[in-house]
């Protein structure tokens, strides 16, 4: 119990503090959230991704293990959410939002900060989380969009939007410069380091500001409750089965297991709002899962430490 308390106050509580700070600042100053989101997407996140990949060496065998896990895990979540939506008898639009809330995980401005805190002395743990962010973005702009607007947007347009994402460019450049051992002049490296160091605070404060804007009308809506239960409890349980089945261990297993427990991605709410499809339900799911994750993520971190350290 003491150890659980240490995990909460050293890892989860700092995240919660920054979320609350973001909510308070938003209430007082009314930030332009779109501008903040763009600042993260086009500046802070690419810098953090680039630095982590540039400074970390990952064996091809590890990449293979991570890739196989991701395919199995995301595939299992797609199937699980599909059958649950049918079992709940959800309407087509609500089912789309429900499935996105289960499959799309907040691996970016929640997952990477958590990974940076847990694996401060083990960069491979952060690098694995970065890989998960890439796959989650791919899932968001393919599966997520297809769920909501498959009849109004072509596959080519989705592909073009995905290729334009700065995080993809940062991934390619970071991996290439790492592989070819290309040095970076100090006058360029130092500013990138500064931006990357600021990612955690800016991302979490912005997430708190975004969550503070969401209306809570029916917090214990059946769809919201089942979605959070599936995302935060059943998801990690399925991930653990996959990890054992693949024979993974050490930092790789620990990182993947913890990553499976993160709350619903804010992108699921953003997409629903942008295309006006059950946006209230989507927003409530993001807010509720983020709040409850403070408890569930703490427990999963503890279990990961016991099983894989």
UniProtKB/TrEMBL annotation:
Keyword Transmembrane: yes
Main localization category: membrane
InterPro entries per the UniProt record, alphabetical: Mem_transp_PIN-like (IPR004776), Na+/solute_symporter_sf (IPR038770)
Pfam family, one: Mem_trans
Transmembrane feature ranges: 6-24, 36-54, 66-85, 126-146, 167-188, 194-211, 232-262, 282-304
Keyword terms, alphabetized: Cell membrane, Membrane, Transmembrane, Transmembrane helix, Transport
Heme recorded as keyword: no
Protein name, as recorded: Transporter
Organism ancestry: Bacteria, Bacillati, Bacillota, Bacilli, Bacillales
């Amino acid at each position: 119990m003491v150890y659980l308390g240490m995990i909460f106050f050293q890892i989860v509580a700092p995240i919660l503090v920054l979320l609350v700070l973001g909510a308070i600042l938003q209430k007082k100053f009314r930030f332009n959230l779109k501008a903040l989101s763009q600042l993260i997407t086009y500046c802070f996140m690419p810098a953090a991704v680039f630095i982590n990949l540039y400074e970390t060496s990952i064996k091809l065998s590890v990449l293979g293990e991570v890739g196989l896990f991701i395919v199995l895990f995301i595939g299992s979540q797609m199937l699980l959410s599909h059958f649950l939506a049918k079992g709940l008898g959800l309407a087509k639009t609500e089912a789309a939002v429900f499935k996105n809330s289960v499959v799309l995980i907040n691996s970016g401005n929640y997952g990477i900060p958590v990974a940076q805190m847990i694996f401060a002395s083990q960069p491979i743990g952060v690098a694995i989380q970065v890989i998960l962010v890439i796959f989650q973005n791919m899932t968001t702009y393919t599966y997520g969009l297809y769920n909501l607007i498959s009849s109004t947007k072509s596959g080519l347009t989705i592909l073009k939007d995905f290729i334009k994402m700065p995080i993809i460019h940062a991934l390619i450049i970071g991996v290439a410069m790492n592989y070819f051992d290309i040095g970076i002049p100090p006058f360029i490296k130092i500013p990138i380091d500064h931006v990357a160091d600021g990612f955690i605070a800016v991302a979490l404060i912005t997430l708190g500001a975004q969550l503070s804007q969401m209306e809570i009308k029916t917090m214990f809506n059946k769809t919201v409750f089942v979605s959070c239960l599936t995302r935060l409890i059943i998801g990690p349980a399925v991930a653990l089965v996959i990890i054992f089945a693949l024979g993974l261990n050490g930092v790789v297993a620990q990182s993947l297991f913890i990553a499976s427990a993160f709350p619903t991605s804010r992108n699921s709410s953003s997409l629903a709002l942008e295309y006006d499809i059950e946006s209230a339900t989507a927003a409530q799911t993001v807010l509720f899962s983020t709040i409850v994750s403070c408890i569930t993520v703490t427990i999963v971190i503890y279990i990961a430490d016991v099983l894989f350290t």
